[in-house]
Amino acid sequence: MSIHFTRRDFMRATTGGAVAVGSSLFGLDTLAAVVAQTKRAPRSATVTVVRDAQALTASHDVNRPALQRMLGDTIVRVTGKPTPKAAWQSMFTPRDVVGIVPTPHLNPTHRELYDAVSEALVDAGVPAANIVNANGGIEKARACTALVCLPALKAHWLTGIGTVLKNYILFSGSPRNYHDQQNVRLGEVWQLPDVKGKTRLVLVDALRPLCDKGPQVDPRYLWDYNGLIAGTDPVAVESVALRIILAKRQQLRGEPWPLSPPPLCVAAADERYGLGTSRTEEIKLNTAGWAEGLLLA
Amino acid sequence: MTLPPNAGPWTRSASTKRIDARGIFDYMDGAGELYVGYRFDHLDVYEYTAPGRDPILVELYSMQTSDDVFGLLSNDWGGEPVSLQQGPEPSGMPQVPPSRALYGGGLLRAWSDTIYARVSASRETPESREQVLALGRAIVAGRERKAPPALLHALPERAGSAFAIRRDRTWFLRSPLVLNAAYYLGSENMLDLSNDTEAVIASYEAAGSAAARSNGGASSRPHVLVVRYASDAAARKALEHFAAAYLKAQAPPASAQAGVTGIEQIEHGYVGYRLQRSILAVVLDAPGAADARSFLDAIRFDVPGPTGGHGGV
Predict the structure, then answer these.
(1) Structure pTM?
(2) For residue A210, which residues of chain B lie inside 8 Å, CB to CB?
(3) Predicted-complex ipTM score
(4) Does the CB of A187 have a partner CB in chain B at under 8 Å?
């Protein structure tokens, strides 16, 4: 698989009829056109975005009761079940060994969210001893029957976006092999035998995302989005996450502010690895709660 | 450097962490390329703590030259300019903002000779802001204020009557990764950038108009990139590499005296290049061939070298 791209590849994608002229040079549709190899069958996915203006305090601390309510609402919307408990029980059984995979670095997953997920799983009947933090090497994934992908929303210096797909990078044992332009291959980590098919829920901590890529946090690029983004299709969830990041960057600069390296991993996970859909027109949004600043127009 | 033992109610921890070039990737969770790309030497990390308050972290990155530190600051000219030192500035340079220190959201970034300082309060308060700035003043006290990189003189302030430089989009860099952050050219290092080269890039917009900024479409504003190589031969080789990787035509043979100029239409606009001895200038996203030539003619190739010598003709 080619991993080398030039700016001209993106230009051709926006002028050659693959995407509409006038589309952003590094927008999602252009990314898809650049990495697409063959025409694929249509897919569909639903991504849930739940927000609460009270989820964070004025000093950006987590309001735990508000987060608890958001989490319950989110999982109900993802599953269509009537209650949070029923929703969790529809996804996980008491026999499961559930690995929760948070992000530990650069705008890490809030501990409060990790704890809330863990408590919800226990409430749903999964023994506490069967719930583990699975961030790390492949042996962590191997020991689990089910995974919850629990990253925080952020751009990233090495992969453009560093949220859902990059969250399993340590399972590869060689994270450097997926940096820079090689981020296009991140989808293959999700196809490792000990990983493939185990992710029952993708839940993005979008309480206070980071819209610039680091390599260190610049607090000017953190903002209170007060949201959770969830679904069962990792590519669709990542695609929605990317739309929010790009919209926020454009809002801050008043002009397009593309990510570098271009987050080709998102479109490639769809077009080359078949992990889900990155195409906006195939993703149904299910939004609830605080509407101001949703950034998903 | 000895930092003060206290900053208001915050007290400096007894232990200091020293990170060398081998440890920077671990410290940055794999993302050490930015600093390595600016000729990183070492990093000293200090922590200030106070009861009932979140800590203040001081990171002092020691780089090989002042130019490298300037380059780090130039990655983002946003934030509130703050003055940490009294006295006259070295002669100004119209291609870049005059700031040596920028503050925002609890983070102070400062250029002080060969030290790039990041001082950050994990929770910003009026009190933490005051102490972050006080620590910044202590860091730069008595240190020389060097001029910005001489290669910036190569960048025209204007090109013809149509385009003016965006001072807040002007970068100094050496690494292809940083170039791609400023202007994504491609995944390959097609200009042979390395720590032995120095480069500046700036964005230009229609003079007197910010209309182009709101353009969400595929077109981009013109950019001017100027690279100085370690030798004339290295510059020539880089042009050949760039032409092969990015352009349709091969670069024509260079004349040692007159250099070589080329202008080519690509998908969105025009690319122009001019090679004169060890300096290669590239104009990107020019809307017309005449614009590309106008930029090339406005670029200075006789700028002083980083140590006072002349790199161009």
Answers:
(1) 0.92
(2) none
(3) 0.90
(4) no
